[in-house]
Amino acid sequence: MDYLTLEYNGDVAVVGLNRPQKRNAISDAFIEELNDVITDVEANAKAAVIHGHGPHFCAGLDLAEHVKKTPFEGVHGSRRWHEVFGRIQRGKLPWFAALHGAVVGGGLELASSVHVRVADQTAFFALPEGQRGIFVGGGASVRSARLMGVSRMTDLMLTGRSVDPVTAERWGIVNYVVDAGEALAKAIELARHAATNAPISTYAIINALPRINDMGTDDGLFVESFIASFTATSPEAEERLNAFLSKKVGKVARPGE
Ligand code: 1HE
């Protein structure tokens, strides 16, 4: 592969953005390779981690390639990012991101499409599209705006400023902040744990939660009842519930245990 690395660590796929000389900037060919990798990962893993090789997670859209596009090519390119990132967000597996260095523009859009984000202390987050004369096109106006809120995203886009990982956690952009160099190990640890969940529950968490979040209260509660019943009456649920009741599996741990 030219732009990505892929390794399997037990049930966990580890996908590396691997164009460090261009700060992992995402070109059209890069997106197609990511699409192929997602297919491989879905066939061979139960959870996945995405991270960046080199000093940064991702510098976003390949600006050199973008300069030369016609308006219509731009629309198709943006729609393709939506399709491919949508396969991550609403696919079969839970995805975790390990973030360090720049997580900017399309890099933040990619990070926003995974389910859990771990940042190390070196990470910084920005949406510099306003300064480049463009707009977000990889899903940020939907996904990143839902994570941090439209007001904060408007501020990021208008000012072009960067925020640090502690602010990013406070804003809901990331779930965990760890010491420099520790994000990948933490993301793999979390992914390993998620890989032991019942696949039907994981599928419901990934696919039902964001849809219910887009619904009104009454519709959301109605849909929740059906998903709850569908998962709880699966043979795997019966087996797992009995394993707890007969004390064959551990209790819920206190934080830090
Ligand atoms: C790139 C890109 C890129 C670096 N496209 N080539 N994204 C941005 O506006 C971010 C632009 N990048 C930066 O601000 C900086 O590169 C970083 C802060 C991310 C990293 O700085 P640094 O000092 O580590 O690296 P560098 O020296 O700036 O870059 C190294 C090389 O990568 C250099 O090329 P070289 O040929 O001179 O060695 C850079 O030109 C190249 N490079 N970033 C192309 N993005 C679907 S819509 C999404 C919209 C967006 O993503 S907008 C945000 C775009």
What do these coordinates show?
The protein has 12 helices and 8 strands. Helix 1 links the parallel strand 2 (12-17) and strand 3 (47-52). With 257 residues, it is of the alpha/beta class. Strands 1-2-3-4-6-8 form a 6-stranded mixed beta sheet, sandwiched between helices. The mean pLDDT is 96. Bound molecules: 3-methylmercaptopropionate-CoA (MMPA-CoA).
Neighbour order of strands in the largest sheet: 1-2-3-4-6-8
Our count of helices gives 12
Cα end-to-end separation: 40 Å
Molecules bound to protein: 3-methylmercaptopropionate-CoA (MMPA-CoA)
The portion of residues forming beta strands comes to 5-15%
Structural class: alpha/beta
From the alpha-carbon coordinates, what is the Rg to the nearest angstrom? 19 Å
How would you summarize what this structure contains?
With 257 residues, the chain is α/β, with parallel strands linked by helices. Helices cover 50% and strands 14% of the residues. The chain is built from twelve helices and eight strands.
Structure keywords:
257 residues; alpha/beta; six-stranded mixed β-sheet; two-stranded parallel ribbon; 8 strands; 50% helix; binds 3-methylmercaptopropionate-CoA (MMPA-CoA)
In terms of topology, how is this protein built?
Blueprint: E1 4-9, E2 12-17, H1 28-44, E3 47-52, H2 63-66, H3 71-89, E4 95-99, E5 102-104, H4 106-113, E6 116-120, E7 124-126, H5 129-132, H6 143-148, H7 150-159, H8 165-170, E8 176-178, H9 183-194, H10 199-213, H11 217-232, H12 235-245
Parallel strand pairs: 2-3, 3-4, 4-6, 5-7, 6-8
Antiparallel strand pairs: 1-2
